[in-house]
Amino acid sequence: MPKVTTVTAGRPLLLKLDAVAAELQCTRRSLERQIAAGRITALHIGRSVRIERRELEAFVDLLREEARSHTSRGADAPRVVGWTDPHNDRGGVHGQTA
C-alpha cells in the first residue's frame, strides 16, 4: 500500500520550480540544470513540473554534506555552501560562503 503524505501547517507538498528557485536563491535555469544532472528529482503532472518539499530539503542536506566533506581537507580550504554552475558565465558558485 502506498505511503500517504499530508500537507502540514498550510505548506504545499509540491512546489513550482520558481518557488524552489526562490527558496534556494538561484535562477530557475540553475535549478533546471540540477534536475537534468539528477541531483534533484522532479515530478511531472501533465505539462507541469513540481518538486516535492522533502526533495528540496534532501537537496539542501546534500549541499551541506558536500560542504562538510570539502572542509575536511583542512582548515585552509575555503568553506563554500553551494554548487558550481559550469554554465554560469561569471564562473561563480551558487550559495553563500560560510
Terminal Cα span: 43 Å
* Main CATH class: Mainly Alpha
Counting helices, strands and paired strands, the structural category is alpha+beta
Please compute the radius of gyration using only Cα atoms: 15 Å
Give the helix proportion (percent range).
25-40%
Notes on the structure:
The protein has a single domain (14-97), classed as Multidrug-efflux Transporter Regulator, Chain: A, Domain 2 (Orthogonal Bundle), CATH 1.10.1660. Helices cover 37% and strands 21% of the residues. It is built from three helices and five strands; from the N terminus they run E-H-H-E-E-H-E-E. The protein has helices spanning 17-24, 28-36, 53-71; strands at residues 14-16, 43-45, 48-52, 80-84, 93-97. The strands form two sheets. The protein has a three-stranded antiparallel beta sheet with strand order 1-3-2. The protein has a two-stranded antiparallel ribbon with strand order 4-5.
Topology, please?
Blueprint: E1 14-16, H1 17-24, H2 28-36, E2 43-45, E3 48-52, H3 53-71, E4 80-84, E5 93-97
Antiparallel strand pairs: 1-3, 2-3, 4-5
Helix pairs in contact: 1-2
Gist of the model:
By secondary structure, this protein is α+β, with helices and mostly antiparallel strands. It is 37% helix and 21% strand.
Q: Which descriptors apply to this entry?
A:
3-stranded antiparallel sheet; two-stranded antiparallel ribbon; Multidrug-efflux Transporter Regulator, Chain: A, Domain 2; about 100 residues; alpha+beta
